[in-house]
Amino acid sequence: METTEYFIYLLSCHLNATAPKGEKRMDWQQIYNLSEKHGVTAIIAYEIKQLRSEFRPGGTIGAWFNESFENTIHSHRARLQSLALLISALSEKGIMHELFKGVVLRNYYPFPELRIGADADILIKPADYLAAVEALQEKGFSEKLIESNHAVFLNEKDIFELHTEFESINIQSKIYFATPFDDISNASGYTYKLKPVYHLLYLVSHIAHHLQAGGASIRMIMDLDVIIRKYPEININEFLMLSNNIKIGKTAETLLAFSRKIFNTPVVLHFTFEDEDTRPLFEDYISTFVSGKVFGKPDTELQENGKKNAAGIILNLFRRITKPKEDKVLSEYQLQLMEELGIDSESI
User: How do the pLDDT tens digits run along the chain, 348 residues long?
Assistant: First the structure.
């Protein structure tokens, strides 16, 4: 099994609660680098602990994994306390606030304390923005950035981002999520969370943005997996209809199929990656979500690295070599997704 394939395999074992099998010849430095890049080092470290001793990395790299695991576990309680303080600060002022993405999704992982994030996202109404900023300042949160409709606060080492609107991939998604405190959310006091099908829809919209701009990560696909496992009652046909309504239907369908293929996500779909037209899309997704490049475009930096290093992350992925730019032929599905995402296929 190739290194990157084994990296994804370990993540799949974690999501499926299955014991991983060891591989004697494995580039653990590369796996550590991938783990750090995608923010899953503690999860990989946990899976390494399930391996027999002869299959685990030793020396410095083994110590790095152990240190990340211990530090992540240790910081979990502090992160929860910071979040509780923020919720309390806003609730005391009667400010409605919506929790979404990682701050909610980590609770759906097998071990929530291992799912870390760079920050916690909080949505508030534009009319409450200044009051929210003042409420956090009163509770001792320090300002890292304050703009007209977006603020970043720190509490100890924990980062919180205040937003006055959801990120949108197009005008349709902007309209769809313009009133999140209405019927697309559930509330407990002043704290709101998107209903599962709408949270899934927002996650796909968020991923679409990263496919368009670059910076997509494999953890985004893990987030799709855990919300589907957490809420098996989600009506996938309804979800796909909603996705079509905001003009990202193909993107949504293929992302769920991708999650099912690499993580065995329990979702029933007609779409697969088993025919000639969809296999190139699968390879492009693998490359995109591991390297963080813009969907559909070659990563020239990785190609150059691959010429110098036989263990290049993408070039040896699943024993396939990425075609040079001049030889790349886009499949029908690749072209359809690029059209949805507004990416110019002529530049490929």
Answer: 899 999 999 999 999 999 999 998 899 999 999 999 999 999 999 999 999 999 999 999 999 999 999 999 999 999 999 999 999 999 999 999 999 999 999 999 999 999 998 889 999 999 999 999 999 999 999 999 999 889 999 998 899 999 999 999 999 999 999 999 999 999 999 999 999 999 999 999 999 999 988 899 999 999 999 999 999 999 999 999 999 999 999 999 999 999 999 999 999 999 989 888 888 899 999 999 998 888 877 654 444 443 333 333 333 333 333 333 344 566 777 788 888 888 776 654
Q: What is the C-alpha separation between 341 and 328, in angstroms, rounded? A: 19
pTM for the full predicted model: 0.89
Helix (H, G, I), strand (E, B) or coil at 265: coil
Token code pair at residue 133: 């900023």
> CB neighbours (10 Å) of residue 26?
17
Q: Which residue has the tokens 């923005």?
A: 129
Read off the tokens for 139: 């509770």
Beta strand residue intervals within the chain, DSSP E: 97-100, 120-124, 142-146, 150-155, 158-163, 185-188, 191-194
How far apart CA 160 and CA 119 sit, in angstroms, is 5
Rounded Cα gap, residues 171 and 82, in angstroms: 34
How are beta strands 120-124 and 158-163 bridged, if at all?
A: parallel
Structure tokens at 251: 């993107």
Per DSSP bridges, beta strands 150-155 and 142-146 are antiparallel
CB 122 within 8 A of CB 162: yes
Whether 95 and 128 have beta carbons less than 8 Å apart is answered as: yes
Task: Give the side-chain half-sphere CA count within 13 A for 346.
Answer: 0
Greatest C-alpha distance within the chain: 60
Strand order in 150-155's β-sheet? Answer: 142-146, 150-155, 158-163, 120-124, 97-100, 191-194, 185-188
Contact criterion met (CB below 8 Å) for 330 and 283: no
Cβ atoms of residues 342 and 208 within 8 Å: no
